[in-house]
Amino acid sequence: MTDALWFDPAEMLIGGRWLRASDTLPLGNPSDGTTLAEIPRGQSRDIDAAVAAADQALRGEWGRMTALERGRVLARIGQAVLDRVEELATLEALDVGKPLKQARADAVALARYCEFYAGAADKLHGETIPYLDGYTVLTLRQPHGVTGHIVPWNYPMQIIGRSVGAALAMGNACVLKPAEEACLTALAFARIARDAGLPDGALNVVPGIGAEAGAALTAHPGVHHISFTGSVRTGQLVQEAAARNVIPVTLELGGKSPQIVFEDADLDAALPFLVNAGIQNAGQTCSAASRILVHRSLHDDVVARMAARYHALRVGPALDDLDVGPLISARQRELVEGFLAKAEDLTVAAQGQVVGDGGHYVAPTLLTGATPDHPLAQAEIFGPVQVVLPFETEAEAIAIANGTDYGLVAGVWTRDGARQMRMARDLKAGQVFVNNYGAGGGVELPFGGVGKSGHGREKGFEALYGFSQLKTVAVHHG
Ligand code: TXE
């Protein structure tokens, strides 16, 4: 077990108690292929216990807290996370394989989510509605109850922050099922949150396999809302399970996001965003800009300038803090290599250099020569691979950008103000960035997709609506 572990990762948190599951799973280190630790292999009985503990919390100290008090607890958790950014970043880097500076940014974002939702906890309230003579009608904003959170392995800290943070702010009690590939920071966060005063049962963490603990959580009749981030296929299963219990579900299912470079773009400003948004976290980012659409007049110039950056990219162990780390697992690397095998008809404009050894490394690859309907221009690859596609007109750019099953994020680079507004209106995406791409991290910015990218919005104030429900009270007083 690594020295960076300051707790026993084989324990899960249920109702304020750290417990062992009947079985464990090995947690891989993506940087060298070794085993980092054994983690709990939660079963449906553990999910049953966690849901019961969450339900108990709603009827106990946690459920009785005012919005102000919940906000104060979240504020203390945010500060405690900030105090431990380095420890959390090291765990995330080891577990996910992302370079330390990226893991550090994720830990700061986790703190920022806690801070944001701490401040927001007592800011969302109901209304009064003019109605019939002799009536007063008001709306109450209330928690769903027990919320299930199924988190993937690519950004555990950020995704926990955005979904658990907002759910707790609204007074829900959470059952969190982190991914089997990466769950150390979920367990660490739960410890930090408890030490900061989060009451027992308000947050329960049960690691395990998706088809076991994950499926048990989504099917559980005691769960009142599910927040899921992951693949389209699993998202469909989650939504089917939620439909059987008739509960709301928020799905964030990734994308094939474009950045569109018009002929009047400020290329010096665009270049870092074009490349970074493709290779950050080795391309395993839901909002990765995996398609770069470039006006034909600039195509060769942009490709040459992106290629120069690609040639300088170095890929190695997370703790060496290079530009790019390994992929999460051998399975993910095989998936990405499978896509690259379908790129034989394309041109490799540039590749980065793998200096690491023994881990799940893939050289970042910049591809040209694809048509918009090529498999590599359509599928979410979830690796450090970008495809550059030329276009002639604004209408063609929109058609290509909107021409996939997804619609999560889009970026537009142009100095033309009217075009900026037309693109913002016409692009099929939950977020459109103009002359930037994901700048500032976006804790405050509502986020979610259209089409196969999912539905519902997390992040920002908007998430608070999703993690609560409205009750209308009509009082007849004459
Ligand atoms: O995803 P899964 P995987 C995409 C990306 C990637 C592909 C496969 O394209 O290559 O998905 O990744 C839990 N019931 N994204 O296999 O299966 C699982 O334990 C309930 C995009 O890792 O969706 C984990 O906690 N839960 C994405 C979570 O679902 C189940 C992030 C995600 O796993 C379950 C990750 C089940 N039946 C992958 N089966 C993004 N949007 O950022 C699995 N899980």
Main sheet attributes: strand count, strand direction, barrel closure: 7 strands, mixed
Spatial separation of the terminal alpha carbons = 70 Å
Q: Give the spatial strand order of the biggest sheet.
A: 15-17-18-13-12-19-20
Bound molecules: ligand TXE
Number of helical segments with 4 or more residues: 16
Task: Explain the overall architecture.
The protein has 478 residues and is α/β, with parallel strands linked by helices. The chain has helices at 44-58, 61-64, 67-83, 85-96, 100-120, 156-169, 184-195, 210-219, 232-245, 267-279, 299-312, 330-341, 375-378, 394-401, 417-426, 462-466, and strands at residues 11-14, 17-20, 24-28, 35-40, 128-129, 135-143, 146-150, 173-177, 203-205, 225-229, 249-252, 258-261, 291-295, 314-315, 347-351, 353-354, 365-368, 385-391, 409-413, 431-434, 454-455, 468-476. The protein has two domains: 11-253 and 454-473, Aldehyde Dehydrogenase, Chain A, domain 1, CATH 3.40.605.10; 258-441, Aldehyde Dehydrogenase, Chain A, domain 2 (3-Layer(aba) Sandwich). The chain contains 16 helices and 22 strands. The strands form six sheets. Strands 15-17-18-13-12-19-20 form a seven-stranded mixed β-sheet, sandwiched between helices. Strands 9-8-7-10-11-21 form a six-stranded mixed β-sheet, sandwiched between helices. It has a three-stranded antiparallel β-sheet with strand order 5-6-22. Helix 3 (67-83) packs antiparallel against helix 5 (100-120). It binds ligand TXE.
